[in-house]
Write a structure and sequence with these properties.
26 helices; 490 residues; elongated; 3 strands; mainly alpha
Length: 490
């Protein structure tokens, strides 16, 4: 059972003929009552140098060479024993050493004919390799084979969910993450250490909350996961997720601070570039959003599978930025290859059409996006913003209402609803929407700016001044800063 044979726990080195000790008594009791794995062997001097042999149960390995090469021989022997006793972990280690072909050569026979409890793990390894080096869509089939063999393994469900979400299958991916969270609660101890179980629960909960628009709660869950992972020495995995949450909460300065803390991405991950784009989008800095786009080429050359993720994760953001810059032909060129089942892609098509003034076409794409992920509020909220920009506050309110029904803790549709009420000269009614939005995005500069404007129109100048001061201390886009300056002069 290679994954549960964790040689890092309770490992002892014993040299024969040193007398009886408490550790030997402990070993005797474990031999009689437990299931320890014993690795023994010897070093023999030969005419050409030394021969090293190691044995684990009925398996053995021998290496030989010059005595001067002892460190190299020990490394080779250790690898052979690692492969024999813990093939999954050994193959995973090979991947960290960029020895991918060797890793696959271990995973494939383990998946095809390994012990039943090991085959699911092997499919995780094959799936992870396939995501990077071939195709995320192809990896889904491998994870599902592993799931059929080991349905209680929460990591298989989590990997399925991560890939589905990466491909823009928000609804399906979120269901997989929810399944992973349920399996974690019931079978987690069979597959992971306690700290991984606790951090995983927070991380999965964060993903589900983010899907539903509850971004502040999603961020808090991710922070809880980060605290556990930091204590266990695994903090790197949380930097990018925290960056995404902060960008979506419109806290761009803090997002940049967290983003700067990240460790270099492993295996050519495209996520760092994409999350930098998310920050630029929140700032409405369209040229800055396009800057990381050129960095994808080298990453994809090294990891061909990431080309699919570029289409579904990065290119929707790039297309929107190009449209805002009036580069509609270039935006359409990015949109054309996008898959038809990708939620962010459908939303990008709708927003680009709206920016081009193609209202009917935009509404058609917004409707498709909303139908593709009925438990996510983002398409409805963006549809409302598009209608508000067209001067249709009543239509906007209908879609903000729909978004709020799906994601009651999502601040964006509540803030947009408030702006739509202001457009209808109902600023006094907008105040309640802004106050409610403040519960879910308390550090959003635009929210407090518009709240201040509504208070001015509602005849409450003192309260308006306080909101303007609050907005001035928060992140604002260039146009919002100009708007605030006008409001203060007025």
């Amino acid at each position: 059972r290679s994954f549960t044979n964790n040689l890092g726990e309770g490992l002892k080195l014993e040299i024969p003929e040193t007398g009886v000790s408490l550790s030997e008594l402990d070993r005797f009791l474990r031999e009689k009552l437990g299931h320890d794995l014993h690795i023994g062997g010897e070093m023999v001097q030969t005419a050409k140098g030394v021969a090293l042999t190691a044995r684990a149960g009925t398996d053995s390995a021998t290496v030989s060479g010059a005595e001067a090469d002892l460190d190299i021989l020990l490394q080779k022997l250790a690898e052979q024993i690692y492969r024999t006793t813990q093939p999954y972990r050994y193959a995973t280690w090979l991947n960290t050493q960029d020895r991918h072909e060797e890793a696959v050569a271990v995973f494939k026979p383990l998946a095809a004919a390994g012990p039943p409890q090991e085959r699911g793990w092997a499919y995780i390894g094959l799936g992870n390799d396939t995501v990077l080096r071939r195709s995320p869509r192809a990896a889904l089939a491998l994870y599902r084979r592993g799931q059929a063999l080991d349905p209680d393994n929460f990591l298989l469900a989590a990997d399925l969910g991560a890939v589905e979400i990466g491909l823009g299958h928000e609804e399906e991916g979120t269901r997989d993450i929810q399944a992973a969270q349920s399996l974690l609660a019931t079978h987690g101890r069979d597959y992971a250490l306690p700290d991984r179980i606790a951090s995983g629960d927070h991380a999965y909960r964060s993903t589900v909350l983010r899907h539903r628009g509850a971004l502040l709660e999603a961020y808090q869950e991710r922070m809880a996961a980060a605290a556990i992972n930091t204590a266990a020495g695994n903090a790197a995995r949380d930097f990018l997720a925290r960056t995404e949450m902060l960008a979506l909460l419109h806290e761009t300065s803090t997002a940049r601070t967290v983003f700067a803390e990240r460790l270099p991405p492993a295996n050519g991950n495209i996520a760092p570039n994409t999350y930098g784009m998310l920050i630029a989008m929140a700032e409405q800095d369209w040229k800055a959003l396009l800057a990381p786009d050129k960095d994808f080429e080298d990453t994809i050359k090294a990891n061909a599978g990431l080309a699919e993720y570029r289409l579904t994760v990065a290119d929707p953001l790039v297309a929107i930025a190009l449209a805002h810059l009036g580069m509609f032909e270039e935006a359409q060129a990015r949109l054309r290859p996008m898959p038809a089942d990708c939620y962010p892609c459908l939303r990008a098509r709708a927003q680009v059409a709206s920016l081009q003034g193609q209202s009917e076409r935009a509404d058609w794409w917004f409707a498709r996006a909303a139908a593709a992920a009925p438990t996510a509020p983002y398409a409805e909220a963006e549809w409302g913003q598009a209608l508000l920009a067209r001067g249709n506050p009543d239509g906007a309110i209908a879609h903000f209402t729909a978004a709020n029904r799906i994601g009651p803790h999502f601040a964006d549709p509540l803030e947009g609803w408030g702006e739509a009420l202001m457009a209808k000269n109902h600023s006094h009614l907008a105040l309640a929407k802004f106050a409610e939005a403040d519960k879910y995005a308390p550090n959003w500069g635009r929210l407090h700016l518009k709240w201040g404007e509504a208070l001015v129109w509602a005849g409450k100048p003192t309260e308006a001044k306080a909101q303007f001061a609050h907005a001035a201390a928060l992140d604002l886009t260039a146009s919002e800063k100009a708007e605030l300056a006008r409001a203060l002069r007025g």
